[in-house]
Amino acid sequence: MTSVKRACGNCNLRELCLPYGLSNDELERLDELVTSRRKIKQGEFLYRAGSGFEAIYAIRSGFFKTDVLLEDGREQVTGFQMGGELLGLDGISTEFHTCNSVALEASEVCVIPFSRLETLSREIQTLQHHFHKVMSREIVRDHGVMMLLGTMRAEERLAAFLLNLSQRFTARGYSHADFYLRMTREEIGSYLGLKLETVSRAFSRFQEAGHIAVQQKHIRILNIAGLKALMSHQRV
Amino acid sequence: MTSVKRACGNCNLRELCLPYGLSNDELERLDELVTSRRKIKQGEFLYRAGSGFEAIYAIRSGFFKTDVLLEDGREQVTGFQMGGELLGLDGISTEFHTCNSVALEASEVCVIPFSRLETLSREIQTLQHHFHKVMSREIVRDHGVMMLLGTMRAEERLAAFLLNLSQRFTARGYSHADFYLRMTREEIGSYLGLKLETVSRAFSRFQEAGHIAVQQKHIRILNIAGLKALMSHQRV
DNA sequence: CGCCAACTTGATGGCTGTCAAGTCAGGTGG
DNA sequence: CCACCTGACTTGACAGCCATCAAGTTGGCG
């Protein structure tokens, strides 16, 4: 844990994160709340299913996955998170986390003590409303994943996944067409409800079709329209 | 629309709904906010994807489904909702609803104007916290559906679905083992990522195995342990 | 340099989708 | 009151997508 001054005011992710829309005065009050950061090494847990819930976390740098485990060992990756996104919202419900959060690369998060966030959002309407929007956005995102898992075929799922990543990298100022995957094929597969071999085969077919260039985790998107077209095919 | 006094104070669903945990004084203040109700006939929309968001809705009686449509016509049912549950949380994010909400039987909902709910939850900490819990619970529920869609086989999905319904009926004072489905096989299938024929076959197999008795939409659970056991089988 | 995890590719099989035909139940109108 | 009609459901046959099993390749790291 490290402590910081001006956590949010100086953060270049603030437009993607909790401080969105706050005035300078309000930002300062949020800064008083976000006083500690945590560094997480690759492979380490930010929190585990079953652990007590006290804070939510804003990703300052790095990349995470969240997953749920069934008693029999089956794993479902529920999401991949990057800078500016919030982690831990699942814990509010029961005061315990219900999923695991694992860093897929060396990362740093801002710790946001939840009860203090609630206090502050009782005082700052903008903050309150934006927080509600963030939670709602997560629900909408989850509906998109259900759609993906419930109705799409393997190649559609992977195309949707790549387009989603591309879009989020763009929003953070990175290339939309050239990026490194932080997760393994198995983790992609778990997220998409597929086996790693199926993911690998789909990558290969995309490459053969000239839609992307794959070199292990290095992805270059060559034909965005081609990927988008893949998603409008009905299940035959 | 009808107007009411003492909307929540007299409602027997209040322990399952938004008023949970409020004092009598606080309940009265919530009652001032929940002043109108809406009756929805079977098959009618409570709201549609794309329509403006102004309020969330608490189900006073009846049964709903929510679904998302893809441009090419594919439908994903994202949930089935019953008394005491909140509808419309998806709309907070963008000020527009992102899914459709359809009554599966004649229903009645309490209209909760959202901006007024935010105002009140800035004043009543208990309400604020409980609302956050409800949103978080929805996120956790969605993760459960992802797990179901991503890792479970057809019979496991249907068993999980029946057990979930049973549990929710129990919480509302109905029989856990004898109930009527409000949705069609096709809607169940959409929710579970299966085709209606597969749902129908799974029902038949459950019946042959003596786990349930099916007569169209009338379901009797004969062997809960048998259903639960179905869910612990690894994908072969 | 060697080891290991991650990945790719091929062969095969099974679960579930698809297509088709038939059954059932509820509602309407004569 | 009953015949008819329609939507919902069931059941069977078959096929295809993806999982499984297996073997080989690549790249990173000690």
Largest sheet of chain A: 5 strands, antiparallel
CATH fold annotation of the largest domain in chain A: Jelly Rolls
Q: In CATH terms, what is the architecture of the largest domain in chain A?
A: Sandwich
Helix/sheet category of chain A? alpha+beta
Identify the most extensive interface between protein chains. A-B, 49 and 49 residues
**Low-confidence blocks of residues of chain A:** none
Helix content of chain A: 25-40%
Helical segment count of chain A? 7
Q: What would your notes on this structure say?
A:
Two copies of one chain form a homodimer. Chain A is of the alpha+beta class. Chain A has two domains: 136 residues, Jelly Rolls; 80 residues, Winged helix-like DNA-binding domain superfamily/Winged helix DNA-binding domain (Arc Repressor Mutant, subunit A, Orthogonal Bundle), CATH 1.10.10.10. In chain A, the strands form three sheets. Chain A has a five-stranded antiparallel β-sheet. In chain A, strands 3-8-5-6 form a four-stranded antiparallel β-sheet. In chain A, strand 11 and strand 12 form a beta hairpin. In chain A, helix 2 crosses helix 3, helix 4 packs across helix 7 and helix 5 packs across helix 6. Chains A and B meet through strand 6, helix 2, helix 3 and helix 5 of A and strand 6, helix 2, helix 3 and helix 5 of B. The structure holds a DNA duplex (30 and 30 nucleotides).
